[in-house]
Amino acid sequence: MTNMSDELAQKCADHMFYNDAATQSMGMSIVKVAEGQSIVSMCITSVMLNGHQTCHGGQLFSLADSAFAFACNSYNEAAVAANCTIDFIRPAFEGDVLKATATVCYQGKRTGIYHVQITNQNNELIALFKGNSARINRKLLPTD
Fold it and tell me: Phi and psi at residue 68, in whole multiples of 5°?
C-alpha cells in the first residue's frame, strides 16, 4: 500500500515525464517512484553506442540524471541540478537493459544530495552518480 507522500511523488514524476522530451526520446521508463527515490530503466540501442561500440557516457549520464530528477522533485518542490558527477565502472553494450536507482542521502530546505547506481540486467554495477539539487522556490505541480 502506498502512502500519501509516495502518491504525491508519483504525480510529480508523471507530470515531469509528460513534459520531458529528452527522457522519452531515449526510451526511458519510470519503474518506481517514492518520496526521495526513483528507479528508471533504459535499453541500450545502436544509436547510443560510441566509437568503441559501448554505450556512450553521455547516455549513461542522462539516464542517471533523469532518475535523480524524479527523486529530487518527488516532494512537489521544483528542483534543478546544481552539480553532478559520475564514475564509469564498466561498459554497457547494445541490448543491455539498464536500471538507474536514485536515493536521497540528504534533503534540506533548499539543497539535496542524491546517489544513483546504474546496473545492468545481470545486476552488475555500470556507473555511480552523485547529484546535488537546488530547489527553485516554486511548486512542481500546477496549482488551481
Answer: -55, -45
Q: Flag whether pLDDT at 104 surpasses 90.
A: yes
Helices (H) and strands (E) in the chain — how many of each? 3, 6
Hey, what CATH class is 4-137 in? Answer: alpha beta
- pLDDT score at 3: 84
Q: Reading across the β-sheet that carries 97-107, which strands appear in turn? A: 29-34, 37-43, 97-107, 111-119, 125-139, 77-88
Decide which of 144 and 117 is more confident.
117
Q: Output the pLDDT for position 35.
A: 97
CA 29/CA 66 separation, integer angstroms: 10
d(CA 34, CA 24): 20
Judge contact between 91 and 56, C-beta under 8 A. no
Whether the CA torsion 48, 50, 55, 61 is positive or negative: it is negative
Domain ranges across the chain: 4-137
pLDDT in the model for residue 1: 46
Please provide residue 28's backbone torsions phi and psi, each rounded to the nearest 5 degrees.
Answer: -75, 150
Which residues, listed in sequence order, are joined to residue 72 by a DSSP beta bridge? none
